[in-house]
Design goal:
Helices cover about 30% and strands about 30% of the residues. It has helices at about 10-25, 40-50, 105-115, 130-140; strands at about 1-5, 55, 65-70, 90-100, 120-125, 140-150, 155-160.
Amino acid sequence: MIIRRSNIEDLELILPLFEYARTFMTSTGNANQWINGYPQKELIIEDINKGDSYVCVNENNELVGVFCFSQEPDPNYIVIENGEWLDNKPYGVIHRIASNGKIKGLADKCISWCFKRCPNLRVDTHEDNFIMQKIFQRNGFHKCGTIYVQNGTPRIAYQKNK
């Protein structure tokens, strides 16, 4: 599997990955995280245009995963409650990991790829997303507290650094 920057030509192949992820999340007890069609097409296009969207491509040149990776500060991470970040150094952020379910361990591979590029990562997930919580813990992230996303709902915040 290779990971490369997404381009606008990938958009129609990326959208079904998010649809699959929404369905999967609902079926595993996490029906409240990606609601109302989140992430919307406009947000995905914005990620692509900023150069923050990446796709995972298998040996058959099929897009099997997508995620957002940014090394810009996340405004939602300015305020953290019920804890604190491990440090205040520059960090990378991983958001919106999605796949078509065909590659086992895809999220682990994405996290590893990001950590090689930025050894200080922050992430967050919904309290109902037990699968992602386990993935973060398995990959060495520490639970740091609670942050709030743009729509005002809480997320569990994690950080991993060297």
